[in-house]
Amino acid sequence: MVTPQQYTAKLSEKTQLNKNYCLFQLELIKPNTINFQAGQYLSLEIGGGEKRAYSIVSTPTKNYGVDLCVDLSPQGKGTTYLKNLQPGDEVKFLGPLGRFIVGREKKLLFVATGCGISPIRSMVFDLLEDKKDKREIWLLWGLRYVEDMFWEEKFRQIDEYYPNFHYRLVLSKPPEKWPVESGHVTDEIKNLDLNNDWGAYLCGNQTMIAEVKQMLQDKGVPEVNIHFEKF
C-alpha cells in the first residue's frame, strides 16, 4: 500500500450528472501525480479544520488527478463546500486511503446502491479496460428512480463488449411499465449461483450491506471474501 500524503489540487471541471449527482474532476498541483489502487478514497479538507471522505471514481491510470462522484442532496457541510467550488479553485486532501481493493478471488461480484458506485466504477474499469482481467464479473447497482440514473449507457456498452462482465441496474421505485429490472439488489442476488469461489465487494448504505452480506454467506460465500465500504 502507498503511504498517504497531502495533496494540493484545483477543480478543473464540474459536471452535473443528474439532479443530485455531480462529478468533480481535480487536477493535481503538488505533488502532480498520485499512485492509488482502485477502490481507495481521499480525505478532503472542507474548511474549519473539518474533513470528509470521498471515494475516487477515476482509475489509477489517470495519475495526474482524481475524479469524485458526489450526491449533493444531503446539503451537509461537505456537499455545500463542493457545490460552491468553481473551476480553478484549489483544494487540499490526504490520500490515498483505505483497503477496499480487489483481491484474488476466482469470480467477482460488485454490489452498489446510489453513490456507492464510485469506488466500484473505479474497480470495474480498472479490471476490464486497464488490466484486461478475464474473471467472471457481475455488477448489481440499485437506484430509486429513473431520474437518479447516470453512467447507464457506459455500463451497458462494456456489458456488451466484455463477455466476462454482466451488469444489472435495479430501480426500487420504477415508473409504470418499466421494461427492465425493478426491486432491490437483493432480488437479483437470489438468482445468482454463488459459492466459495466468489469475492464480493459492497458499497452503499448499512442496511443494504447487512442484508447482502447475510445472503452471500447463506449462499456459501465465505465471510472473509466479503468486502465492504459503508456510506
Beta-strand percentage range: 35-45%
Counting DSSP H or I runs of 4 or more residues, the number of helices is 5
Number of strands: 11
What is the N-to-C order of secondary-structure elements (H for helix, E for strand)? EEEEEHEEHEHEHEHE
**Biggest pleated sheet:** 6 strands, antiparallel
Give the key terms.
single chain, 231 residues, alpha/beta, six-stranded antiparallel β-sheet, five-stranded parallel β-sheet, 11 strands, globular
SSE map:
Layout lengths: L4 E12 L4 E10 L10 E7 L2 E6 L9 E7 L5 H8 L5 E8 L9 E7 L3 H14 L5 E8 L8 H10 L3 E7 L13 H5 L8 E7 L1 H13 L7 E5 L1
Parallel strand pairs: 7-8, 7-10, 8-9, 10-11
Antiparallel strand pairs: 1-2, 1-6, 2-5, 3-4, 3-6
Concise overview:
By secondary structure, the protein is of the alpha/beta class. The protein is built from five helices and eleven strands. The chain has helices at 77-84, 117-130, 152-161, 185-189, 206-218; strands at 5-16, 21-30, 41-47, 50-55, 65-71, 90-97, 107-113, 136-143, 165-171, 198-204, 226-230.
Give an overview in words.
The structure is a single chain. Helices cover 22% and strands 36% of the residues. With 231 residues, it is α/β, with parallel strands linked by helices. The radius of gyration is 18 Å and the shape is globular.
